[in-house]
Each structure stands twice: as structure tokens, then as C-alpha cells.
Amino acid sequence: MIELGKMQKLKVIKMTEMGAYLNFEDAEGTDDILLLKNQIPQECEIGNEIEVFVYKDSEDKIIATVRKPNLTIGEVGLIRVVETTKFGAFLDWGLEKDLLLPLREQVGQVIKGDLCLVGLYINNGDKICATMYIYDMLGTESPYKKNDRAYGTVYSINKEMGVFVAVDNKYHGLILNKELYGSYQIGDNLEVRIKNVRDDGKLELSLRKQVQNEIESDAQMIIERLKLGGGNLLLNDNSSPDQIKAELNISKGAFKRAVGRLLKEGAIEITEEGIELRWK
After folding, report:
1. pLDDT of residue 242
2. What is the mean pLDDT of the chain?
3. Which DSSP string corresponds to 40-106?
4. How far apart are CA 160 and CA 72, in angstroms?
């Protein structure tokens, strides 16, 4: 049975000057697809099977090609935008006919030349289109375990929950709001730490390193800020989380851990206004 949008093996049933006709069966019966002559493998004969990608052209004709596109049905990947229009954008997926990303399937701003993270679907006219709504296309059987490092692409932002990330552009990932520092947008590429692998296989992510490593980097950053401020920083235990985040872009918990480390090492002292550098 023919499967639009996938690579599959079809049998050669006839050879003509135009090319090879490949046989397939669908719900309406048996038919054949033309594979153009310039795409026929050498020494191909009737009865041979050829692996092809099958899709519909602009005239609604089912066609075959031996070229594998950059993306097939069931996959998620980054594809470059080559044109934008009032009704959608066109993406270069490696075939002669560009792939349509309809306007209603777009998330955020789509700009010519950018890479878009998309999956494929078949519309009501049996044509293959792209969508940026990929949540249901991502997998949960990742190779990662707690504290592993990985890379991913931001594909959705929920103000109440956090930032959704396609880890390796394949797997479900979420950075909860409490783990976010800074601002992010659709399409951002991030390095993340696997904070937790849930029972359902979905990944909870963090932008920060493990606690012991966080202390080192946060403590060094506070020292640098103290030096820039003439040895003083107007933050202490009484400072609000918002004040600390605005000044240092870290959580209050991370601030307290780093300050505790610096106090233990004798690098700083606590004053009424905040903290003061002792290492001059």
C-alpha cells in the first residue's frame, strides 16, 4: 500500500521512453507511478524493486523520486525557509518542489533564511505540509539519564509552565519557569542539563550545571561583580529573589550557596548594606 511522505520500495512493472512505472495499491485499487528516466538506477529491469519517496505534485498527481528529502513523515527536523507569503512559508526540504508551511501551522515569526523546526503531516488534499506544532511528534525513549548534557531547540513557550524544548530535535523536554534565567524565543538553540527523567520518559531540563559546579561559577561571577562595583555589592539575605535575579541573573538559592562558599573561604564579609570583598 502506498504511503505518502515516506521512503518505500515499489516494483517496476513497465519501462518506457519517459521512465519506469512503479506499481502500488491503495483503497481505490491498483495503479502505477512514473519515475522519470533520469532517476532510474542503472541496469534496472522490470520486476526490480526501487526505493522511492512518494508525494503529490502541484497538479495533484502522485509522483516518485529516488531522492530522499531532508524530512519524511514521522520525523522532526530543522529546514530552511526560502520564501514567505501571505498564506504561508516555503521550506527547502531537498526536493524540486518546496515544502509548504501554512500560516496557521506557524509559531512565532518565520523569516526567510531562518531554520524552522517542523514535522510533516498530510492535509485534507493528501498533500504533505509542514507544521511547527510538533508536541505530539516528539518521542519519549531518549538515551539520556539524570545530569547528562544535551542540546535542543525551543519550539513552544508557555508563560504558566515554562519553555518546551525538542532535545536533539527528537525528544520531549521542558524547562520549568523556576529554572529559567533570561529571555528565550522560538527557534533558540540551547545547551541543557537533564534534571530529571520522568516515568513517562519526558525530560525535565535545567539551564544550570549541577549544584557543586554552579557554586564555583556563581561564586566567581559574584567576585567579578564585586570588583566592578569597587568591592561592594548591595545584596544580602534580605534581598528579594527578584532583586537578585535582576542584578546577577541567578536564583536566591544559588546566591546564598555561592555567598556561603565565599564566606567560608574568607573572600567576603557581610555588611549592613550587602557584601564586601576582602580580597583586594
Report:
1. 86
2. 86
3. SPTT--TT-EEEEEEEE-TTS-EEEESSPPS--TT-EEEEEEEEE-SSEEEEE-SSSSPEEEEGGG-
4. 33
Q: What's the pTM?
A: 0.69
Angle between helices 211-228 and 252-264 (to 10 degrees): 80
Looking at mean pLDDT, say which of 48-52, 61-65, 199-203, 261-265 comes out highest: 199-203
Question: How many angstroms separate the CA atoms of 197 and 212, rounded?
Answer: 20
| 261, 220 Cβ separation under 8 angstroms | no
Query: Is CATH 3.30.1360.70 the classification given to domain 211-277?
Result: no
| CATH of segment(s) 7-65 | 2.40.50.140
Q: Which residue has the cell 526560502?
A: 82
> In the CATH scheme, what is the code of domain 76-135?
2.40.50.140
Most confident stretch, 20-29, 35-44, 94-103, 242-251: 94-103
- The domain 139-206 is placed in CATH, from the list 1.10.760.10, 2.60.120.200, 2.40.50.140, 2.30.110.10, at 2.40.50.140
Indicate whether 213 pLDDT > 80. no
What sign does the CA torsion over 117, 119, 125, 127 have?
Answer: positive
Write 276-280 long-range contacts (CB < 8 A, 24+). 276/226, 276/231, 276/232, 276/233, 277/223, 277/226, 277/227, 277/231, 277/232, 279/223, 280/231
Q: What are 76's three cell numbers?
A: 522532526
Q: Which residue has the higher pLDDT, 25 or 131?
A: 131
